[in-house]
Write a structure and sequence with these properties.
There is one protein chain. By secondary structure, the chain is an alpha/beta fold. The chain has three domains: 31-98, 2-Layer Sandwich (Trypsin Inhibitor V, Chain A), CATH 3.30.10; 101-162, 2-Layer Sandwich (Trypsin Inhibitor V, Chain A), CATH 3.30.10; 170-232, Trypsin Inhibitor V, Chain A (2-Layer Sandwich). It is built from four helices and 15 strands. The chain has helices spanning 2-28, 42-51, 111-120, 180-189; strands spanning 31-33, 55-58, 73-77, 83-85, 89-94, 101-102, 124-131, 139-144, 150-151, 156-162, 170-171, 193-200, 210-214, 220-221, 226-232. A three-stranded mixed beta sheet has the order 2-5-3, with helices on one face. It has a three-stranded mixed beta sheet with strand order 7-10-8, with helices on one face. A three-stranded mixed beta sheet has the order 12-15-13, covered by helices on one side. The radius of gyration is 41 Å and the shape is rod-shaped. It starts with a helix and ends with a strand.
Length: 233
């Protein structure tokens, strides 16, 4: 009984195998296996495909492929080995070489903002050179490589940053012998900041008479400076 069942099982398996082979032969009759065109030029692939009764069609854009020569086929559809009917089209894309990223325009960005932009772009921040007085404080002036340059992913980008703001300087005039109110009006009119007013006793002079100032007369002064004065109590 066991032997009979075994013989029946072998017979069924052989029948199924034969049916499968017949099905495969039927399906593949009149078809061609797509060759691997990777690394070939479009012209070479076109000639090879023509001999097999296939048509090669180049599509844009290309694809980034560091391991395939620039301009050679890097991707195809259908994939190699796939069976297609005679006359079918094989669509290919050529290699654009290694992937390239455009250095973003960071001019006017803050340093921290520019570092985030570089990271989001797939680039690496490098050295930070600093200058003073070129524009507003903490603003990027330029990059190395320059803005718009194509670079490989992960490339190091150095930035030039303006550290302190561009300032206009004046010569500090003398405020001595003026009143506190006159000194206040002068600072307001010239966009200067009046800081501490030190009151000191000085017999013989009227109250509010200005005795001393900082910055002193003749010193360079800008809008960011604070003016301090000493007046009679």
């Amino acid at each position: 009984m066991v032997r009979r069942l075994l013989l029946i099982g072998v017979f069924v398996a052989c029948s199924l195998l034969g049916c499968w082979q017949a099905l495969v032969h039927t399906v593949h009759r009149g078809t061609r296996a797509v060759p691997d065109f990777t690394g070939q030029s479009v012209e070479e692939a076109t000639r090879a495909a023509h001999d097999l009764g296939l048509v090669v069609e180049s599509e844009d854009p290309g694809v980034y492929a560091a391991d395939v020569e620039l301009g050679a086929i890097a991707a195809q559809r259908p994939q190699p080995g796939f069976h297609v009917k005679t006359g079918s089209r094989v669509r290919v894309r050529v290699s654009l070489g290694s992937e390239r990223i455009t250095i973003p325009d960071l001019r006017g960005d803050s340093l921290q903002g520019s570092l985030r932009d570089l990271e989001r772009s797939g680039l690496t921040s490098g050295r930070r050179a600093r200058v003073d007085g070129m524009t507003a404080a903490d603003r990027v002036l330029a990059t190395d490589p320059p803005i718009g340059t194509l670079a490989a992913p992960g490339s190091v980008v150095h930035v030039l940053v303006n550290q302190s703001p561009d300032t206009t300087l004046w010569v500090m005039p003398s405020l001595l012998a003026r009143s506190t109110e006159e000194a206040r009006r002068f600072c307001l009119a010239n966009s200067l900041r009046l800081g501490q007013i030190h009151e000191v006793p000085y017999p013989g002079l009227p109250s509010g008479f200005l005795l001393r100032q900082y910055p002193p007369e003749g010193s360079p002064v800008s809008r960011s400076d604070i003016v301090a004065i000493w007046v009679v109590q």
